Amino acid sequence: MTTLTTQTHRFALPARILHWLMAVLILAMLFIGAGMVSTVSRRYPELLAWHRPIGIAILILALIRVGVRLSHRPPPLPGDIPPAQAAAAKASHIVLYALMIAMPLIGWAMQSAGGYPVVIWKGFELFPIVPHDIVVYGLLRRLHGLLAYAFFLLILGHLGAALVHAWIRRDGVFESMTGSRRP
Question: Which domains does the chain have, with CATH numbers?
């Protein structure tokens, strides 16, 4: 049975912890990924060695986060938010969750299709989730890159909306995720 949190003015503590932990990991991944794409140096293997386990950590945390979201009702948006804006907020959160899960799975599948092991740490690697196929590898690599750009744009929109709530509207939405109280 699902239990709903009684706190309606802010997100549950597990949701807030997961949000900020994942924000740091996802931003690190975006920078690491950009570094991997833009480099032709010997640093690529080092970056990839970080990218793979962080991606799997994000996948695991995202699945936990979905469970927390389903078991703890988020606080409502302010009543004066226009319906279209409220719908966009809900849709963007669904897409954020989808990408937090899809990106690591696509990366794992891409590595599997390329015949590359996903090494989590020395001596521990994940099993391949798709058969070795260089054509599939190429398609998944392109998809992973395109979704990374979309994810980055969505994150910028999310950050922009958070700052509007914090600095312009001052309506408590930002504080609901930081856990702070409005003055």
Answer: 13-75+88-178 (1.20.950.20)
